[in-house]
Write a structure and sequence with these properties.
With 533 residues, this protein is of the alpha/beta class. It is built from 18 helices and 16 strands.
Length: 533
Amino acid sequence: MAEKIFIYDTTLRDGTQGEEVSLSAEDKVRIARKLDDFGIHYIEGGWPGSNPKDERFFELAKQVDFKKSRLTAFSSTRHAGKRPEEDDNIRALLGTETETVTIFGKAWDLHATRILDVSLDENLFMIEDTVTYLKKQDRQVIFDAEHFFDGYKHNSDYALRAIQAAETGGADFIVLCDTNGGTMPDEVSDIVKKVRRLHQTTLGIHTHNDCGLALANVLVSVHEGARMVQGTINGYGERCGNADLISVIGNLHFKLDYPCVSEKSVGQLTELSRFVSEIANVPPQKQRPFVGKSAFAHKGGVHVSAVLKFPKAYEHISPEQVGNRRRVLVSDLSGKSNIQFKSEEMGIKLGGNGYDSGKIVQEIKRLEDEGYQFDAAEGSLELLIKKVTGQFKEPFFLESLRVTTEKNRDRPGSSQATIKIAVGDEYEITAAEGDGPVNALDNALRKALSKFFPQINEMALVDFKVRVIDGSGATAAKVRVQIETRDEKEIWSTIGVSENVIEASWQALVDSVQYKLLKDPGNPQESKKELVI
């Protein structure tokens, strides 16, 4: 088996430099605990000398018993003209009391002279002096050679002298950084190979994704001898992000047979990805390799038919190996296999001769031609299948509705909705107000139905989206409304399409309520009705 690869996570520092990624000190502790449970080897907690939040994190982290991971504090080399023991950043670094520290220094001569405004020799002395001092403080030292690849291409001799300075100081790891994310894989491969021949210190790799090559550059570096990989969960980071450790671990484990984390941990990749996404309040990327919601989603009828017979026909690994699951989508591209799979998944019985499947496929294709999109609205899809096959009876009917909106010059607009519905032989007429026409309509519908179906009071609207299907019609264009609703048990999506946004919203709202009643029909005796749901 190949040599072990050390995984170094910098989500809590480099990841938070990504746009719209923000973590409190408490958030960072929660993620650090999760990374430790998962088995990440190194967790970079932040830069304690740069901001109060990171200083607070390291204070909180002193109360955490890390069982699998080494917590690491990050900082720069000492400032020019100062001894390490006099430098505030170095004192803050040591104040974290972490056994491992990471410092970065400039490996590109341009940055030494133009950014730090120091001589080339002084920059090298700052690197060696800082590493030497930290080693004397009994710390494991990781040296990040910032801008190494750009520096090597501009002045290879100086870039090599920079990492030699860290090696002379006693660094335990030297990490080569593609800080600008612009180096090609063949260049990375060639440079890492040359560095590996010249230096004995264990090498690491730190890549950014500005050319979409962060993962590729990690993999070629490992092939050429790098034994530490730095990156972030979900690839969060400045500009286009860092190497995504989820994909790094997946590829090292399944494709290259490099041990990095346990088999059990690999099976928790999806959970880890979504946990960090939730804490960071960043929506999960559906197309994320290995762990995305769409990573094992099949839509084309030919694909689905093949996957049901032999999953390897269209899946490079089993989704369960990373804690994910296979999904079959239904759309105008669907065949009978899609419908059969979805029906079984939903617990719906279809006719054995395939007639029901054919009817459903034709109806879906007709509706998607009108603008519906059922792969994003599985609540509406389940209702459609049951209606087409005669397994669902409408629990209520609309007799009429009216929505009015009033706007005064100095006040926000307000809306009122009046609705008349029929439930069995009974009728209910009611009205409600709302902040807008859809809100008023939603309130009126719930108010009218709650007398018959009190369980709808458990529902809550969590998302509402309107998409113009074809903008050529301007304000008269057809729109697609998608809503997400939840109760204590699940979240479901429903959809409506019309040239009238109120009508489209009504369709989505009705489907949402009907789906709730499908799953939770309640007690017909209590609601004085005889319905088949």
